[in-house]
Fold:
Amino acid sequence: MKTVTLLTIILVSTLFAATSHSEEVLSMRERAALIDDILKDRLERTLPKLMEREGIDMWILISREYNEDPVLKTMLPATWLSARRRTILVLFNPGNGQAVERLAVSRYDVDSMFRKGWDKEKQPNQWQRLVELIKQKNPQKIALNKSAHFALADGLSATEYQELMDALPSELSNKVVSSQNLAIAWLETRSGKELEVYPSLIKIGHRLIAEAFSNQVITPGETTTEDVVWWLREKSRELKLTNWFHPSVSIQRSSTVKFDHLKAFTASNAEQVIQAGDLLHVDFGLVYLRLHSDQQQHAYVLKPGETDAPDYLQKAFTKANRLQDIFTNNFKPGRTGNEVLKMSREQAIAEGIKPSIYTHPIGYHGHAAGTTLGMWDSQGGVPVTGDYPLHLNTAYSIELNAASFIPEWKKEIRIMLEENAFFDSSGVHYLDGRQTKLHLIQPK
Structure:
């Protein structure tokens, strides 16, 4: 796969900078064409390399309508909103540089992506037709989506698994293996075509946050946190986009209320009226072209007479940016999430920063497949998923916070940041930059 450089990302971001929200978002018909173009490219160019890397020559995905395997859903064309009846996809890599064969043991061709491989009139039993195909191809391994630890790689239902195993003769059932690492690789690897469009989604999110954290939306003393949350939901729909989680807007201010991590990220945080002197935080994510965004930023509500945020808040913000740099500089191919987490925390603490790191892959899902780099309540490392190694050409939601004690407020605050980035051979690059200064909201 062609590696997308930082220069490419910058050029694409610059291209979209001159357009409005509505101009950025394609029509549904245009989206479908682009989704299918990206999928075809991934099946033809990305998948063969991943199958070779993971040592799998046959991969079988099985789903019944409305109970789709999350991996299978990413292989359906744009006009297939679900599987049909029982959909069985067979991917076979014959090796020696030959193209991966894509067959559907189904009543239908799956558009142009998978050729129909079952004639029910000739072989009434769908499972027996699958067995016939497997015998014809004679694979070394038969990979199925079963995994004890990675949910996105565990999409084969118990019934479908049992029916398949009942149909397979022993000489074939002995070849069955978990597709875990291949499924993760397919989901986490970003293609060149995806990287051409991903920055536009991140830019839209940044623009919506900037608008939400402005006087166009917020009137101090009147607007509530829930007003801003629902403005974000409505604005997303106006752009014909969806949110993969309900946004949250929270407040830290000079008061006796202490920071509560759970409340800061859940709807249980009570609605509050936004006041001058407040430090606002938003958590917001969009879905577009099957890709996801996940962003957190901060704003400060100026008091009368102020022209900028207080120096103590700006210094706290700078610490969080420094934590981002420490963390992303430790990304190296082959390092596990737990290794990156440990060395980043140790370095940050040595520099006088109080860190909390809880970064996750992003792409076809918000909390996507790949290595876990800490959780807010597991700063000592995450078993199994945190031991999965980093691979190149993957995307991450760089999510973390840095705590600072604010004497003027007599308490500790958190600067909680989340920005989406791409990891390649030259390092970690933000898809549309990152927040380096607080949004400012004028007093009433």
